[in-house]
């Protein structure tokens, strides 16, 4: 994207076994972009390992804020340092850095304020659990109903934001379920959203906090959160 500044934000919690590989993949695929690792008060060696990588900036949060607080820290950093674009790549290794080019191209072509990397748009990617796929389908129908927008992978954290969305989300960003709620927030402020198909992979180390047993509970809470965000009058 020419001379425009791009920041890669990697939120990470207890990812000591993944973080250096994630950084290495970013360096190999998109070496010209700056990297910020937001260590969400990990209890392991995530911060120490991230600091082994030359040129990577690391922010250590004093308390565990969750994914929402960690990503908003990235927005604040991107806004303060006048980045043109911010890309979120999770620290668990599921997002493939070479796919960032697809996000960049989609944003350039569409002119949208946020582009989501979707596992479900003509891409052969790893399959999530059936419970999670069911939840994503329910969220898809909710977004069609509430904001008349098709979002096939609303829980994907693999996203790119432009200056307008960075400026908004550095001030207001959901805490508990930021990926679906951020879609509502952006649409309510008149910003535009699109998706592009991307490949993702399963994490190599650790496990997701959303287990099959917890999935129905997670889905119910996200649905309530989406309705709350939709009906909220002020942010």
UniProtKB/TrEMBL annotation:
EC number annotated for this UniProt entry: 2.4.1.-
Superkingdom to which the source organism belongs: Bacteria
Record key words, sorted: Glycosyltransferase, Transferase
GO MF annotations, alphabetized: glycosyltransferase activity
UniProt keyword Transferase present: yes
Residues of the Glycosyltransferase 2-like domain: 8-166
PANTHER family to which the protein is assigned, alphabetical: RFBJ PROTEIN, UNDECAPRENYL-PHOSPHATE 4-DEOXY-4-FORMAMIDO-L-ARABINOSE TRANSFERASE-RELATED
Protein name, UniProt field: Polyprenol monophosphomannose synthase
Lineage of origin: Bacteria, Bacillati, Bacillota, Bacilli, Bacillales
